[in-house]
Amino acid sequence: MSGGAMTTEMCPYLHPRGSAREALAAYRRALGGAEPAMTTYGSLGMDDPSVRDMVANAVLRTEVGGPLMVSDLPPGADEPAGVACLFGDDEGALRAAWDVLAEGAEVFQPLEPSPWGSLFGSLRDRWGVSWLVDVDGAAGAAG
After folding, report:
1. pLDDT tens profile 2-24
2. Could you give all domains of the chain from N- to C-terminal order, each with its CATH number?
3. What's the longest Cα–Cα distance across the chain?
4. Disulfide: which of 3, 43, 73, 135 matches 119 by Cβ 3.0-4.6 Å?
5. CA 8, CA 124: separation in Å to the nearest integer?
6. Buried (b) or exposed (e) across 53-80, using 16+ Cβ within 10 A?
């Protein structure tokens, strides 16, 4: 092994219901980042018109802490849509992301003070992906 620096990243891999392209556009608005790198099923040699233009894999390099991988599931695939967590201490950025993710979502827990001293919220977005948002220290408990 060389003595060079190595990095390891972990990221969520989401399978939004409906359109991965549409979900990616919203996630990019919520989380920032450049246009995602995208591979279609057609580019992998699948000529079936029902899947040819679907997203086989996309990587959004977000501005809030790492990559997010997204794909459409081919017809008949039965996998969970996924769960993603956003956390940190940048309340403005996390509130802005929450607002985008909450568009058309089923909100389970509004983004509000939690018993553990942060702002916390959970929702299932309009593509079936569950999101947990936790703003560390933002509940403003005078300590």
Report:
1. 556 665 566 888 999 889 999 99
2. 13-135 (3.10.180.10)
3. 61
4. 135
5. 28
6. ebbbbbbbebebeebbbbbbbeeeeeee
